[in-house]
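Structure first, sequence second, as always.
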């Protein structure tokens, strides 16, 4: 019998073997393969080889359906006067609910009239005379063919009579109306299979035109990986820091500065901010959607405050869901070891200009390890399930209504009932959250004006999982109510004639109403305001200049903060881009950092420290925002259909990082001023004061990223990237140890497989070099820094699936961290975190 320790490498080997076995029957990355057929088809049509061109376009649509391909097929069939086929292709195009629906419907009406007239005046086809089969023709021979010749046998002296050649009747020449002629001539000649991004500039553009390094995690990447956790999908992006601490707590940063309650990256879902404003962090397992609802994920690497304001400090992650009415209706369910479970069901449809997408789901992740035994009599243990890492029961509904060609409304909302086990800051190392997360909103998209309004609410019960007998579990009930309203004016024009401008001007308002026992009472209601402008100037066909700027009013600081950005994109060819950019960004203090007022009980009985942002012992103290100044140069090459690659180098200067302040001990002067001493509200003696502070250290970060994607043969899709990050730290206090909590080296490598007989999968490998973390911990003397070395670790993940029954059913199996415990104990991704072990899951999915 095979041991569990040896089983994981065998699973990985089996996946690799499957890739080798089925590579001969495989076909390439769907989008890449479809692009080849599309380009070939359009080239043939341009050469007036319309029939051959249509065949190529139809093959492209079969591989990767795209409405514009159906449109081009229809236009070509009109040119051939195959009106019945043109009508069918136009109707396929209309299934996508395009903005030019009215024009195409009028074209179909014209074609129906032409088809009726064509059929009326069309002469009956001639019937060929029957060809009598010669007696010596074998059954396997076709009429009109020569009989097969045997070796040494002379050819037949008299060939068989040729069948009568039938010429198709000439099409009836009918007048083409202006509407039909106009629509048929407007073929979509652009590369419809080119990926587009919207996050870097708030408008659809090629990654080649993006002012920042942008990575796209595609729908195919999501499906073939088998991951159900969004952070694990992000791990494949060059320069990403993904750190799993517990079964339900994963923290994500970019180009360094990851931490518990990570807050350096702005996370959006369809452009809607999802981070909690209480802590400034993202609870990834609290979303109302899951991976089966995601169309793609856009990752903008580099500061984004010039367009998105506070919190877009190191970059922006925009999770874009499948649009209402798109895709298929279906479900997926999976179970795994340790009580892991996943379920997702969705329904999508369209009726005229109205479309919808609804989903429900459930997720359960166990802890990697239990913190305390249930039989401990020296601890006060909460009632929270000590074996649970995360649980999420969710539902989501999104609706869309197309008013006309240029105007569309979308609205909807989501709700999730969540339970999370997380690691907090300072002494709060094992914290539990239970409660509800919901959002509701509406958006309008027009030709020149876009607007959005949404409301989010977070209502949870929180507290520590365990404490020594005699200590409180710090039970609390944080509540968050946020209203966000934003509007944007968009226009493009020429001025002067040689320059093409694409202008975005936006205004925003954000109301934050937070209630939490850990904050000063009553906590203030904050009213944030913002304005931004961006102009993308296209100079000829080779140069784009992007200038952006934003101003944010921060109530806590009672002042404006500006965030400029400038980028120059030079394109030596249509498929190459050289990018130079510079920008600044900031992160404002979260509510916890801005308004903390918490008596913290020390290990010494009867003694406490007052942790407060507003300092009674230091009047007029204001916590400053974190600041980053960045410069970046990059090169992107998509010249070849078989591979693409990107090379990026950057420099970041980071100042004012927010951290827990050192405890300021009680003094006689403070005691004489009435500060400290016995606190009757808690029954504790105040021995000192804490809170938050800005680090005086300056971080100079130098880094580079090399990433590429390769399609060497049909069916084999390889991605790989390497990230280098080096930090030079200038200390305010000499002798302070360097903080090396960012790995110098990260390597990601993956192989994807798709076959004609339905087998598909992915094997991915991740390596992260060793680190030394400076972590703030609570001791008898207060909050102090301690260093914790963290060894290098690797991850090996795999998935193998089989699609059958017309691609409606799929069964698959996944393994996460297959090598855990094989060459040593499972690795930790944070000094205080669990040892991250192995997980295997099996899935079944069905789509209509």
């Amino acid at each position: 019998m095979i041991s569990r320790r040896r089983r994981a490498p065998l699973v990985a080997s089996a996946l690799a073997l499957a890739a080798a076995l089925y590579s001969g029957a495989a076909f390439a990355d769907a989008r890449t393969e479809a692009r080849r057929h599309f380009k070939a088809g359009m080239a043939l049509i341009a050469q007036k080889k319309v029939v051959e061109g249509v065949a190529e376009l139809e093959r492209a649509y079969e591989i990767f359906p795209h409405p514009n391909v159906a449109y081009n097929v229809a236009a070509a069939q009109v040119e051939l006067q195959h009106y019945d086929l043109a009508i069918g292709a136009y109707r396929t195009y209309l299934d996508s609910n395009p903005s030019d629906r009215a024009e195409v419907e009028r074209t179909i009406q014209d074609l129906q009239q032409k088809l009726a007239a064509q059929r009326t005046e069309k002469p009956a086809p001639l019937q060929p005379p029957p060809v009598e089969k010669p007696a010596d023709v074998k059954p396997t021979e076709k009429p009109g063919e020569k009989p097969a010749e045997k070796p040494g046998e002379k050819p037949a002296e008299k060939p068989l009579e040729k069948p009568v050649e039938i010429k198709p009747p000439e099409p009836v020449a009918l007048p083409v109306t202006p509407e039909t002629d106009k629509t048929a001539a407007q073929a979509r000649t652009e590369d419809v299979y080119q990926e587009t991004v919207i996050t870097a500039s708030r408008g659809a553009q090629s990654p080649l035109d993006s002012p920042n390094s942008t990575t796209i995690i595609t729908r195919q990447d999501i499906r073939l990986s088998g991951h159900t956790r969004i952070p694990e999908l992000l791990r494949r992006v060059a320069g990403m820091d993904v750190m799993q601490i517990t079964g339900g707590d994963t923290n994500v940063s970019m180009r360094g500065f990851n931490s518990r309650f990570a807050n350096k990256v702005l996370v959006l879902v369809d452009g809607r901010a999802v981070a909690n404003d209480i802590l400034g962090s993202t609870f990834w397992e609290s979303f109302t959607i899951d991976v089966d609802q995601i169309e793609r994920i856009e990752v903008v690497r580099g500061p984004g405050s010039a367009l998105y304001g506070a919190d877009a400090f190191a970059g922006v992650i925009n999770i874009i869901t499948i649009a209402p009415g798109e895709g298929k209706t279906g479900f997926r369910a999976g179970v795994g070891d340790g009580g892991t479970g996943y379920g997702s069901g969705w329904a999508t449809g369209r009726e005229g200009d109205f479309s919808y997408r609804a989903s429900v789901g459930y997720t359960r992740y166990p802890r990697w390890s239990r913190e305390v035994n249930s039989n401990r009599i020296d601890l006060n243990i909460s009632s929270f399930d000590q074996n649970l890492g995360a649980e999420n029961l969710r539902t989501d509904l999104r609706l869309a209504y197309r008013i006309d060609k240029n105007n569309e409304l979308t609205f909807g909302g989501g709700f999730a009932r969540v339970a999370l086990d997380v690691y907090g800051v300072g002494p709060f190392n094992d914290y539990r959250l239970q409660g509800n997360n919901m959002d509701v909103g509406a958006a309008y998209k027009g030709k020149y004006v876009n607007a959005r309004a949404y409301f989010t609410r977070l209502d949870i019960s929180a507290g520590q999982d365990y404490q020594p007998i005699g200590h409180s579990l710090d039970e609390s009930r944080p509540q968050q109510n946020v209203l966000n309203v934003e509007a944007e004016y968009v226009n493009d024009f020429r001025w002067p004639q040689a320059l093409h401008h694409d202008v975005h001007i936006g205004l925003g308002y954000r109301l934050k109403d937070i209630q939490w026992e850990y904050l000063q009472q009553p906590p203030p209601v904050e009213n944030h305001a913002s304005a931004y402008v961006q102009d993308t100037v296209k100079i000829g066909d080779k140069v784009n200049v992007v200038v952006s700027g934003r101003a944010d009013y921060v109530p806590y600081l009672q002042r404006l903060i500006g965030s400029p950005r400038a980028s120059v994109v030079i394109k030596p060819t249509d498929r190459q881009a050289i990018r130079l950019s510079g920008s600044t960004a900031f992160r404002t203090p979260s509510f916890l950092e801005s308004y903390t007022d918490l008596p913290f009980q020390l290990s010494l009985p009867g003694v406490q420290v007052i942790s407060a942002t507003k300092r009674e012992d230091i009047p007029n103290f204001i916590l400053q925002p974190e600041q980053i100044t960045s410069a970046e140069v990059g090169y992107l090459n998509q010249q070849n259909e078989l591979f693409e690659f990107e090379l990026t180098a950057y420099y970041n200067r980071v100042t004012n990082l927010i951290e827990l302040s050192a405890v300021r001990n009680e003094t006689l002067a403070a005691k004489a001023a009435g500060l400290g001493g016995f606190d009757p509200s808690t029954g504790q003696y105040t021995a000192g004061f804490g809170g938050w502070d800005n680090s005086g250290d300056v971080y100079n970060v130098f880094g580079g990223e090399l990433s590429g994607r390769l399609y060497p043969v049909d069916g084999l899709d390889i991605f790989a990237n390497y990230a280098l990050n080096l930090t030079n730290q200038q200390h305010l206090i000499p002798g302070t140890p360097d903080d090396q909590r960012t790995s110098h080296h990260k390597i990601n490598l993956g192989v994807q497989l798709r076959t004609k007989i339905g087998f598909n999968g992915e094997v991915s490998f991740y390596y992260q070099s060793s680190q030394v973390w400076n972590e703030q911990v609570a001791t008898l003397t207060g909050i102090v820094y301690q260093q914790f070395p963290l060894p290098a670790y690797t991850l090996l993940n795999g998935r193998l699936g089989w699609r059958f029954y017309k691609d409606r059913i799929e069964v698959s199996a996944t393994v996460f961290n297959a090598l855990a415990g094989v060459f040593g104990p499972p690795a930790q991704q944070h000094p205080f975190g669990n040892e991250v072990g192995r997980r295997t899951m099996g899935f079944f999915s069905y789509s209509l």
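Margin note: Residues 1-28, 133-176 have pLDDT under 50 and may be disordered.
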